[in-house]
Amino acid sequence: MNRSEEQVRQAVLGRNPLVYLVSPEEGRMLGMLEAVARDTLGEDAPVYSWSCLGGLALPGATGDTRDPASALRAVLAYPGKGFFVMNDLPDFLDDPAVVRGLREAYLTLAGSGDKIVFVLSPKLVIPESLEKEIYLIHVDPPDENELLDEVVRLQQTFQGEPLADETLSEVAVALKGLTFNEVGHIMHRVFTSGKTAREEILEQIFIEKEMVVKKSGYLEFVPPRFRIEDMGGLGNLKLWLVQRKKVFSRDAVAAGVPIPKGLLIMGMSGCGKSLAAKVVSSLWDVPLFRVDMNLIFSGLYGSPEAAFHHTLKTVEGVAPAILWIDEIENGISAGEGSTAVGTHIFSAFLTWMQEKPPLIFIVATANRIQDLPAEIIRKGRFDQVFFVDLPSSRERQEIWRIHLERQEADPEKFDLEFLGVLSEGWNGAEIEQAVLSARVEAYHEGRQMTMSDVNRVAGTIVPLSKTMEEQMKQIRSWAFGRATPASKYGQRRK
Q: Crossing angle for the helix pair 198-214 and 165-174, nearest 10 degrees?
């Protein structure tokens, strides 16, 4: 019995005649209520369902029961026991007769324990006059056991090789946060197409979760396109991520192992902070969602505080997940000059970080690290704070190789050691741009990119380390002793 079912059972045992269930899953809720009715009222206890289209199919009912007030009168007149589920009733709570009908139901049925009226809706609307009478339950999404049972049930309706137990367990975890209807759509696509490999199922789940977060408007699903091999340098950061891949799992939660909570990556612009956030998703096989704080503060979705709260709840609903907050110093801050709204969001975020579900991992990136308040970088907020400096010569060679291969060039035909020296003081983004520009010029002339193309383009690039030399010195000075170098070669590298 899951937590929501136990809450319903306790409400019935407490003889609460009016119970409000907040859930979009009518089918799942009816199945749950039927089980609770059998357990509390007897095996023959019926569950009747009302809608404004079909009315209430209640024996002996008179009048047009599609009208909610008439349906409530029929419930009060019914002599037998049972559960009476009123679907989408909140849409009719502006009618005084409906509100009066619910109050009459409470006053008439209170203490009987054998007739319960359930209001079922995905939205919460409780008139002030009913606040004391209604027992409220926010129904949790299906848990892993329910999801596992549902996947097994759907699998039995198709012919073919059943999924391995290990795959079933992993799929059930990945499906958390989705409704039974959404799970059904995913698994029907999987079993119908025959694409039942683990990676193919996870891809379908990621697609469904992408659609869920798109409805919020200010969350963006980031596809897992980059592997850890696509990230040059940053050896300490890579090792940290690899060592925690197995720990971010349901098995680790069950074993009581401390689950990674989050990562703060700060430092030089263009050195791979955003790429690192994307790599976590592909390495851990967990969907990545980026929150757009500009949209949160725009007011398009109501007050910024409410929109941010809804963002966090949406991410909780699709866990396990990674939440990426880019340039956190711009969106979530309580420093000097911050608005009252920004301060409220900052406080709410810190509280949520302490109380969030275990299988939500936060990746925050920052450029102006000196603008971050001390509260967010202290130990315990994030598992680790990494500082990303300009790449060393050896790392630059690695980055040149990655981008040359990405542009279909043979790195062996390029003098990588020379390029590493030539690009002294460059960041990874500048190396990437040099390779892209060289290939464009070579393509314009109808030939393959060569070393001379790269040399020519490199001579035109003025690196950020020269144009922002003073700012970079300040960033390095601030980070020294406050953050762990992301590269195994140290903080100031040649």
A: 10
